[in-house]
Write a structure and sequence with these properties.
By secondary structure, the protein is of the alpha+beta class. 57% of the residues lie in helices and 8% in strands. Helix 1 links the parallel strand 1 and strand 2. The structure holds glutathione (GSH).
């Protein structure tokens, strides 16, 4: 059901919030952004304590709190017409889904890692983020919030798999992703072609933090990839973009730079998602694999096990003919392993 102003609770420091606000602007869906729990005090609580939270009206008009950006985007597609972020061709819709999940589940490792691993980044995030809920909080209170919030976040680095062993893997992958995106943007304005897909918003959301906020990754981006820096700022508000009906990249004219991006996904996200699923299946206490010849080790992450299942459901829904078309795009990128039948 369409609402006059769709309530969304989140924070400028949350990459998933930035993903969704940018998407709402592009889609021209009117919303009201609630930047603290206090602003949403009258609204229902979501089942899981994550942001952003969307408050959708049910049949009776009562608001229901929902989290998880990927299914929320699909719900918005059903409820609001026009300016779609999902390509009509199911093969390109799968590529978009995969790159969206890469943004949400892999790039977020770089985002969380840089923010809570290095002193300069911890200092910046710890000092600024506590002001987002209420900018007038007195300094003495901010000092306490800063210490408590930073400690909590640093203690959770293990969740995304950031540790002394994986730091180099995460940082190398961030730099390679920036380089691959930079090459792609020389040819096309968006990941998905001449109009943005949900993958664009997922990657841009993480990059708002990496490229614009946290000093260590921001320095890397500004020094080597000014084009990507500019892209992130532009994608934040695409409400004025004229959408071309045939603007999505096409499977039978698949951009070489998009293949290169899929190869990057195949180097990192793919081995880690597969090793995570194996560890969960076998009840292991550690995920162990290699990424680009270097060790990856982290605690199993049940939510990312579900992400892989959802991706496989997307694949299973394709017709036989579309599977063949998609398989030929994925062949040799490493991503074909995600959907290959078990051996
Ligand atoms: N899969 C979720 C992830 C959302 C998420 O992880 N949000 C972070 C903030 S960016 C969060 O709320 N973390 C818990 C916390 O900060 O307490 C989505 O796509 O919306």
């Amino acid at each position: 059901m369409q609402q006059d102003l769709l309530p969304v609770r989140g924070s400028p420091g949350s990459p998933y919030t930035r993903k969704m606000l940018a998407l709402l602007r592009f889609r021209r869906i009117p919303y009201r952004f609630l930047q603290s729990e206090r602003d949403a005090a009258e609204l229902p609580q979501p089942k899981v304590g994550l942001i952003p939270v969307f408050y959708f009206a049910d049949e009776a008009g009562a608001l229901q709190a929902e989290v998880d950006s990927t299914p929320i985007i699909r719900r918005l597609e059903d409820e609001y017409a026009g300016r779609s972020v999902i390509p009509a061709d199911p093969v390109m819709a799968f590529v978009n889904y995969l790159l969206e999940d890469y943004g949400d589940e892999w790039l977020t490792k770089a985002m969380f890692h840089y923010r809570w691993y290095y002193d300069a980044d911890i200092e910046m995030a710890g000092s600024v983020l506590p002001h987002y809920a209420d900018v007038s909080v007195p300094d003495e209170q901010i000092a306490k919030l800063k210490a408590a919030f930073s400690e909590r976040q640093i203690s959770r680095l293990y969740v995304v798999g950031s540790n002394d062993t994986t730091a180099v893997v995460i940082e190398d992958s961030y730099k390679r992703f920036l380089a691959a995106l930079n090459e792609h943007l020389k040819a096309l304005p968006f990941l998905m072609g001449r109009r943005p897909g949900s993958a664009d918003f997922a990657c841009m959301g993480q990059l708002t933090q990496l490229v614009q906020f946290d000093p260590t990754p921001a320095r890397i981006a500004a020094a080597g990839f000014p084009r990507v820096h500019a892209w992130v700022s532009k994608v934040e508000d695409l409400c004025g973009l004229q959408v071309e009906a045939d603007g999505f990249a096409e499977a039978d004219d698949f951009p070489a730079t998009l293949s290169a991006l899929l190869q990057e996904v195949g180097r990192t996200y793919v081995p880690v998602m597969l090793a995570n699923a194996r560890a969960l299946d076998q009840g292991l206490s550690q995920v162990e694999t290699e990424v680009e010849g270097k060790t990856w080790t982290q605690e199993p992450f049940p939510y990312q096990g579900k992400c892989l299942q959802w991706l496989r459901i997307e694949y299973a829904r394709l017709s036989t003919e579309d599977k063949i078309r998609l398989d030929s795009l994925l062949a040799g990128t490493g991503c074909e392993r995600l959907v290959a039948p078990p051996d």
